[in-house]
Amino acid sequence: MPDTAAKPLNIHGTALLIGERGVLIT
Questions:
Q1: What sign does the CA torsion over 7, 25, 12, 10 have?
Q2: What was the pLDDT predicted at 14?
Q3: pTM
Q4: Who's near 8: CB < 8 A, 6+ residues apart?
Q5: Please, what is the Cα angle at 9 between 5 and 15, to 5 degrees?
Q6: 16 within 8 A of 25, measured Cβ to Cβ
Q7: pLDDT tens-digit profile of 1-22?
């Protein structure tokens, strides 16, 4: 999991993780 790459998406990524299982973060 690219936590460093998803830093700006940390807030939005969390919502995506719950909504889309973090498809954008993967």
A1: negative
A2: 72
A3: 0.23
A4: none
A5: 135
A6: yes
A7: 555 555 665 666 677 666 666 5
What single string gives the DSSP state of each residue in 1-26? --TTTTSTTHHHHHHHHHHHSSTTT-
Q: What are phi and psi of 22, to 5 degrees?
A: 70, 45
Checking 1-9 for CB contacts under 8 A at 24+ apart, the result is 1/25, 1/26
User: How high is the pLDDT of residue 17?
Assistant: 67
Q: Which amino acid is at 9?
A: L
